[in-house]
Specification:
It is a single chain. The chain has 554 residues and is an alpha+beta fold. Helix content is 42%, strand content 23%. The chain has 19 helices and 19 strands. The strands form four sheets. The chain has a nine-stranded mixed β-sheet with strand order 7-6-5-8-9-15-12-11-10. Helix 5 (118-131) packs across helix 7 (157-169) and helix 5 packs across helix 17 (468-492). The radius of gyration is 36 Å and the shape is elongated. The two termini are 40 Å apart.
Length: 554
């Protein structure tokens, strides 16, 4: 389309539109415009007719060419160089900084005079556990091609291992510094600290020539007794924020770790701390450890352990007081003076009904099994009797008669029925109300939930490291990731998978144009804006970087 102008005698200018085609002059060789069609004056041209003509011509073009024609661009001149995730790493990095974790590492690195981006490497490994768990080797590619992390364009695996080694060497200092920084910022209530342990296993075969420090066989809470494992301990606040973690050899029993946990937390000088532990930790020795340095405990009690004070507490009459839906309690004090023990007996009516129904089904199966035993003779009979008597499901209801034949003992059935829906708590703190004791113990579920997150969302297991320090470092990285995840869940009021889905949809795209290159994020949706606002995190800049004619504008 060619535009020509003509000046009138009165000085006014008139423009004309022509459809023209350049041809090379046969003699001079210069291009000469050959007019194919005159559209007339520009101000009187039928624009709708031109549009219809353009659409008619575009019908024979490919769809992308049609769009290019309508937009007035040349498709080959624009290309997308990369498309990376931005939102998840951005939000975690902001929390990382706000919680004081970044400054803790930077201070440590200044003292050690490290020049490598160790802090950025630790953050990259932590973010990877929360966003896209992978091996350390695969993390190289993830950082370079899939995610945008400020201050880290790429990283090599030897830098990751060096950062892990530094993390292990200074783990106590890092955990303490992170805790106090986070406690001041979030106003954490640390009067109740919940503690529990779990185990995690390895897929790496043992080395017969190597002495295993951590990887041992033991009681597996993952139901993999065939694999080597380690035991992991976690201390969690009432809000579900993990404040400290421990790693022990895989054959460590629950009863063996309380002394170290109490000692480590006492070293933080937290003041009045009431430690909440499950039944697996409620030995007298462990409870005495928890009372040292002015500490107190709330402990689940073993109700089938034939302990005199427990039997007396269960037999004590009294009315239950409703606390909340499906929770009733009564306070019981057994003994006097130094032998005095304070208990809170809690009952869940709904769970009591479930226990009764499960017991009735078990007894019905047991009666059928006893009928079957009458028809078995000889050696097979002896084996069948031993099997049913030692069974965890059936044995607690049985007694042997004069002929050594198993019978249902109704007194044992009544004893089990007495425990339906109940759990017994013991506390050393007389200032706590019975309601606080019961509700505080129920919060122990926060630790179990933290372990579920570690093992599922953050892919703690299985581990492929052999060296003990690398194993400890891997657990510490998972702890840091869990810390960030729990803070995010607490502030947003939603689960991490749902939060992560929204954040990961915030992308950063690098576009190459004839004028230069530009890195721009996608638009923030209302749902993403709500997540960022709840986290107290600013939106990432829309234009991250511009490169124009060898000049860079960031």
């Amino acid at each position: 389309m060619r535009k020509t102008k003509r000046t009138n005698k009165d000085g006014s200018t008139v423009s004309y539109l022509q459809l023209a085609h350049n041809e090379r002059h046969a003699v001079t060789g210069n291009p000469v415009a050959k007019v194919i069609w005159n559209f007339g004056r520009e101000d009187s041209v039928d624009k709708d007719a031109l549009r219809r003509l353009m659409q008619s011509i575009a019908r024979v073009l490919d769809p992308e060419d049609q769009i290019a024609v309508e937009m007035g661009i040349e498709l080959g001149s624009i290309s997308i160089e990369s498309d990376k995730s931005l939102g998840g790493a951005w939000a975690l990095d902001q929390l990382w900084t706000k919680l004081g974790i970044r400054s803790a590492f930077e201070e440590l690195l200044r003292e050690r005079q490290f020049e490598a981006p160790v802090e950025r490497a630790v953050f990259a490994m932590t973010a990877n556990r929360a966003l896209a768990p992978s091996s350390k080797l695969a993390l190289e590619d993830w950082v370079e091609n899939d995610v945008c992390i400020d201050g880290l364009g790429q990283v090599q695996v030897h830098q990751l291992y060096r950062a892990m080694d530094l993390l292990v060497e200074n783990h106590e200092r890092v955990q303490e510094r992170v805790f106090f920084s986070m406690a001041n910022l979030l106003n954490l209530e640390v009067d109740l600290v919940y503690f529990d342990t779990t185990s995690t296993y390895f897929e790496v075969d043992p080395d017969p020539d190597e002495e295993e420090e951590l990887r041992r066989t033991g009681y597996s809470k993952d139901h993999r007794p065939d694999l080597l494992q380690v035991v992991i301990g976690l201390a969690v606040t009432r809000d579900g924020i993990p404040v400290r973690c421990w790693v022990w050899p895989g054959n460590t029993g629950d009863m063996e770790v309380v002394a170290q946990v109490k000692k480590d937390l006492t070293g933080w000088k937290l003041g009045r701390v009431i430690t909440v532990v499950d039944r697996g930790f409620s030995s007298d020795a462990n409870l005495r450890h928890l009372q040292r340095a002015g500490g107190h405990y709330i402990a689940g009690e073993r109700m089938r352990a034939d302990i005199k004070t427990v039997e007396e507490a269960l037999a004590r009459p009294g009315r239950y007081k409703p606390v909340k839906e499906n929770l009733e309690i009564k306070e019981i004090v057994v003994g006097d003076g130094e032998a005095r023990v304070r208990y809170v007996l809690a009952r869940n009516p709904l769970e009591a009904q479930r226990d009764r129904q499960r017991r009735e089904r078990t007894l019905a199966e047991l009666r059928e099994e006893l009928k079957r035993l009458k028809s078995v003779t000889g050696e097979e009979h002896t084996k069948a009797v031993c099997k049913v008597v030692t069974s965890k499901r059936f044995g607690k209801y049985l007694m042997l008669d004069a002929r050594n034949f198993p019978r249902i003992d109704q007194s044992k059935v009544k004893k089990e029925a007495r425990l339906d829906g109940k759990y017994l708590l013991r506390t050393s703190d007389d200032t706590l109300s019975p309601e606080d004791v019961a509700l505080g113990y129920k919060q122990l579920l926060e630790v179990e939930d933290a372990f579920r997150t570690l093992k599922s969302t953050l892919d703690l297991r299985p581990m492929y490291h052999r060296v003990s320090d690398r194993i400890r470092a891997h657990v510490l990285l998972c702890w840091l990731a869990l810390l960030l995840v729990r803070v995010a869940e607490t502030q947003v009021g939603d689960t991490w998978p749902r939060i992560r889905t929204q954040l990961e949809r915030i992308r950063i795209v690098e576009i190459n144009t004839p004028e230069g290159e530009i890195a721009q994020r996608t638009d923030i949706t209302p749902a993403q804006k709500r997540v960022l606002s709840s986290l107290g995190v600013p939106e990432p800049k829309k234009i991250r970087e511009i490169r124009l004619k060898n000049r860079v504008r960031a």
